[in-house]
Amino acid sequence: MQTNDRTLFATVLICGYALVIGYTDNYVRVIAQDISLFEFHALRAAMALPLLFGFALAFGRGLWPRNFGFVAARSAVHGTAMMIYFSALERLPVAIVAAGLFTAPIFVLLISRFVYGRKIGPVRVLAVVIGFVGVIFVLGPRALEEASVAALLPVLAGLLYAIGNMATREWCPDESAETLLAGFFGMLGVMGAVGMAVIWAIKPDLPPEATGFLLRPPVVPGAMTLWWVLVQAVGSLIGVGLMIRAYQVTDASRASVIEYVILPASALWSYLIWGETLDGMATFGMALIILAGTMISLRARAQETPAAA
């Protein structure tokens, strides 16, 4: 396991990830009008993997993992989390789904302490609490009104996402970001293809308006859908690559709190693209989330500067 910790560098990487993913995820609602969740993941993987292989060949980067089992396990956990996450995006706004997903820092803190026996300082605990309170404010009364399976799915995704993020540093510290990206997209591609095959085989007897993003049979996508899937593929390669690298250079319990920044990033893009605005309670929640990430970053800087000196 790596012992070096570069939290400030990880902060920059995660901010880049948040800006890219916050933009691309806002267009999932467009994709969901045409194809299914499974077809989306299969198509995105079919576009992303050749781009990744081309990059690896051009720059002499190997993609085969050093430990196939750990990479496959991490990919399966993260892939399942993303399947759940994207299924919720059809029914809920990006900021709401992201808020549920980012209960992950709570799970990361618990796993770090009770599974790996890590000592968690008071600043990190306080930052997680402040960030989680911010999430509650962002969710607001709407989350309580929509307390359904769809509203709870992002929390389940958050648990799996936390396990996958811990695995990035604990199981795969010596794997390249390109290798983990290939495993991630490869697993999602397999899941998507299997899902498409199952839906095609069972042919659920449902009216078209009831099939939705989850149960829609495979179709030939339109040009606009293909364009946004390509944008998703390129954006995900860049964004997820930045996120993977961030979790390799700093402790997961720090990175997961900084990753709260995707909430304000998603809300910003929702406003710029769709004109969706947040009320005062949600804005206050965003401020708390930014405060939590800032606390982690400043604390890390204070710890890293004496060590560098």
Characterise this structure:
The structure is a single chain. By secondary structure, the protein is mainly alpha-helical. It has 14 helices and no strands. The chain has helices at residues 7-25, 28-31, 37-59, 68-89, 94-101, 104-114, 122-145, 149-170, 177-202, 208-215, 223-249, 252-258, 262-274, 280-308. Helix 3 (37-59) runs antiparallel to helix 9 and helix 5 packs across helix 8.
Any chance you could write out the topology, listing elements then pairs?
Blueprint: H1 7-25, H2 28-31, H3 37-59, H4 68-89, H5 94-101, H6 104-114, H7 122-145, H8 149-170, H9 177-202, H10 208-215, H11 223-249, H12 252-258, H13 262-274, H14 280-308
- From the N-terminal CA to the C-terminal CA, the straight-line distance is 24 Å
* Main structural class: mainly alpha
State the helical fraction: over 70%
Shape: globular
> Treating each run of at least 4 consecutive H or I residues as one helix, how many helices?
14
- Count the domains: 1
The total beta strand count reads: 0
List low-pLDDT spans: none
Order of helices and strands: HHHHHHHHHHHHHH
Radius of gyration: 19 Å
Name the beta content range.
under 5%
What's the mean pLDDT score? Answer: 82
What characteristics describe this protein?
single chain; 309 residues
In short, what is this structure?
This protein has helices at residues 7-25, 28-31, 37-59, 68-89, 94-101, 104-114, 122-145, 149-170, 177-202, 208-215, 223-249, 252-258, 262-274, 280-308. With 309 residues, it is mostly helical.
